[in-house]
Amino acid sequence: MERPSGGPAISIAWECLSNFTRDDAFTARLTLRNSGPAPIAPGWTLCFNTCRKILPETVSAGFAVAHLNGDLFGLSMPSSAAWLPGQEYVVVYEALHWAISITDAPLGFYLLDAHGRAFDLGDPAIAPFTRPEQRHRMQGDLLPTADAAWRFGQNAALSLLSQDQVGRITPRPIRARFDARQCWLGRSTAVASSTGLDNETAFLHALLAPLPETAGSTRIVLETDPAMAPEAYLLEIAPDRVLVRGAGAHGVFNGLQSLAQLLAPDGALPCGRVEDAPRFAYRGMMLDVARHFSSVDTVLRLLDCMARYKLNRFHFHLTDDEGWRLAIGALPELTEIGARRGVAAPGEPPCLPPSFGSGADTRSPAGSGFYTADEFVTILRHAQALHIEVIPEFNMPGHARAAVEAMRVRHARLCAAGDPEGAAEYLLSDPDDASTYESVQLWHDNVMCIALPSVERFIDTVVGEVAALYRKAGVPLRVLHTGGDEVPVGAWLGSPICQARMRAHGWHEARQLRDDFQARCRAILARHGIAFTGWEETALAANPATATHGEQVYVWNNGWGSGQEDCANRLANAGYQVVLSNAASLYFDFAYAKHPQEPGYYWAGFVDTRDPFGLTPLDKPLLPAHDAMGRAPGAAQVAALAPLDADGRGRIAGLQGQLWGENASSRERVEYLTMPRLIGLAERAWSPDPAWTQPAELARDWNEFANRLGQRELARLDRLPEPWRYRLPPPGAVVCDGVLHANVDLPGLALHYTLDGSEPGAHSPRYTAPVTLAGSRSVKLASLDTRGRASRIVTLNLELP
Length: 801
What we know:
Elements: E1 10-22, E2 25-34, E3 45-49, E4 64-69, E5 72-76, E6 88-96, E7 107-112, E8 118-122, E9 125-126, H1 132-135, H2 148-155, E10 175-184, E11 190-193, H3 198-208, E12 219-224, E13 233-238, E14 241-246, H4 249-262, E15 268-276, E16 282-288, H5 296-308, E17 313-317, E18 319-320, E19 323-324, H6 333-336, H7 373-385, E20 389-393, H8 401-416, H9 420-424, H10 453-473, E21 479-481, H11 496-505, H12 510-527, E22 531-535, H13 537-540, E23 552-555, H14 567-574, E24 577-580, H15 583-586, H16 610-613, H17 635-639, H18 646-650, E25 652-659, H19 667-674, H20 677-686, H21 695-718, E26 732-736, E27 739-743, E28 750-754, E29 771-772, E30 778-784, E31 794-797
Helix pairs in contact: 3-4, 5-7, 7-10, 10-12
């Protein structure tokens, strides 16, 4: 049904007034103006999403704010007066925590009129964060804003290296040597391959197809040697022959990825020898498509990029409170209800509420969407061709509101149709549950009732259909991720069904109920021949006497002050296979730096490309030099961390980057947040253990890697048919005695500047040495990629003699 048109025109502006209100709250101001020609009838509610919980008692007199659920809030005006054209309202309020960037501002405004009709209004104009009380989280925030001068200081230790000092292959191989000879390949170069390498041969032909024709007699040989280590490869390049050898197809494929990096657009290859094998067997990347949906093409592009840098696990976070993204034939409500967000128009089925600024329109491609069975099979087959294992995640028992709500709607529909037995078949909630809780993301009803037999039936049905899709794709389903994180305290305590099960078994703690649920999940998965895995809570919440050691577990919460700084070590020592998913280094939804214009969360700190590159598991956890507020940990705090024992060190299965979806609202944003951090992750997951003992050693290796990105890798991404829109770092810059000094944190990127107030681009002067400003009153700078795309513009306003 068509949505109402000709809705109200409302201008919305938002400003953080001060983060110094008190340590746990800030003050903000909304300015609302009826910019249309007609009055707005009383009874309206202005709805919006914000990750900062508003304190209703602090809202300006004459207005009321209600927390609706999750990050959705509603502002209303009890007055019976109409909102007249040109009339402006100013609403001041306090909210928990702080607001120092665009990510902290409310988004996705829409008006509900007195008749319940919804009109999207979009995002507000966000006032600049200029004053100290706007740029710092509280009086005790020790981290400086990452402005041009701060960046210049941070980049000061970097230097531009010559080409022969910069590695040619990323991730860095175990051994590589090249000489002055060259080999030439063309689109018709002969290829000979061993049995079982059809996929790799096709990949090689696609790699050769864009090359010019060559008259040479060079041959490429692809072969396997089972005596080699898993995924290892040997690459030998001579003027007339290229050999790619691996233990199996995957090793050969890894060798071809290195060959692709060495291959020039004209077909030239340096002659030499590369011997290589991965440091970790598990090298992963997680994409959350529940919070914001990513199209099939976006997922396939990410898989391609993962393969370029030899990542081999794709953790597909398909469900959460804000969305269920895979069609399950037996339960169509999961996508009819759980894959749609907004305000349902008359005649539309119910849907989930707007989240993260997705707005009232249920057709929003970021808030709504799902993968059909055929689309999911396409993703599985594409990943298999790239030797990437897809690990699907269905989050439970918490983070499950999309499923819970979809099954509530199913239950109501079948009850109304006179089928109470069918209605109860897949119910995930206790209708009489009086539990009171609030999840980290502010939901009050997002936990499954794990005592219901129908929950087991639901899980078994979903797992059965997912397994069938893997079989259709011809891909093995070895492991399924069950989530298990952030179940809020208070869940199940007011559920008569849960309490009855606890009494029947003599249990006194909710943990015992949860142990029972996880055991039942393991049994369901085992019947389908699938291994169980989950976030660290699935191990930490378990009774040690009944814990399933040897299971894979993903450890995420390692930020200073979390109390879990050494969780990975403790679980590895206890017998779990640990995938390091550290928030403080591997959360790619975090902002790159503390700057108002950098999108992303930062609750465990700020994560730039150097953070994943610098992560290496040692006997003691390698932790950030400071917490999220800039405070250094004390010596006693460090000494108390659990060391890895000999067995525990061998149980670090690998590393995984996490791109949570709250701020990944488009393909462009996905690519900005992912790259180039993904390459830093790949380097650390694949390349040999650097065993740094001194900061100078890390600084030396980082300088080489930063040059590799700036001089080689980002340019490769620019040459793709559809280039990646990775983050270009804004320059660092200072003016001393009328002279401009500038630098960048990825040496080799071009810096351009203007002195006339225009935006810098490829047409502007290129910065190669300090520039005398000669009376200019402003300077604008940007780093540029090889296609002329610019970073965020840096402006220096000058007062010169």
